[in-house]
Amino acid sequence: DETEFRNFIVWLEDQKIRHYKIEDRGNLRNIHSDDWPKSFEKYMKDVNCPFKIQERQETVDWLLGLAVRLEYGDNADKYKDSTPDGAKNTDNTAKNAEPLINLDVNNPDFKAGVMALANLLQIQRHDDYLVMLKVSFTERLTQDAIAKASQSKEGLPVALEKHILGFDTGDAVINEAAQILRLLHIEELRELQTKINEAIVAVQAIIADPKTDHRLGKVGR
């Protein structure tokens, strides 16, 4: 909303940034004026904002960052010894590091998630949802799966820039992640192809060595 945006800019200047003297803030405060965009553009230049007035989101982020920096500078002694609420003591820090400790087992979303997992893995229902969750992660994991997950694979470094992704997400980090996922998928396909080839070889070995029974006049097992 344009009016809320203008009020927000005025509030930041009046309460936090205070770049202008009070008597010089009149044009910026006149939010209903047709010339307000020009006053705002001048204000951005005066505070050395690197963005254009059309870049609203970037401008807001930058001005908020400036306001926070100035607020801290005015009250450095007050804020320098502050600690996050979750890190006031060692116990809280440890609990925050382990999200399952703070798990609310009575939360409807938790119960629904466990039930969906149990149905997917075909696990017998139990009144205690934690019991079902434990079974999901233990009894349904075969020893082969656990052993495979425990194996560490060593491979050769891959130059991602040499692999063409084929599309662009507009974000370099996401593009790189997509390249990695594609390479991992190709590796899984190669493993599958190897297993298929092994199965074909095994079948061919059986077919190529038939048992002959002359009494029955048949060739084969």
From TrEMBL:
InterPro entries, per database record: RTRAF
Coiled-coil region: none
Superkingdom of the organism of origin: Eukaryota
PANTHER family: CLE
Record-stated family: Belongs to the RTRAF family.
UniProt protein name: RNA transcription, translation and transport factor protein
Taxonomic source organism: Crotophaga sulcirostris (Groove-billed ani)
Gene name linked to the record: Rtraf
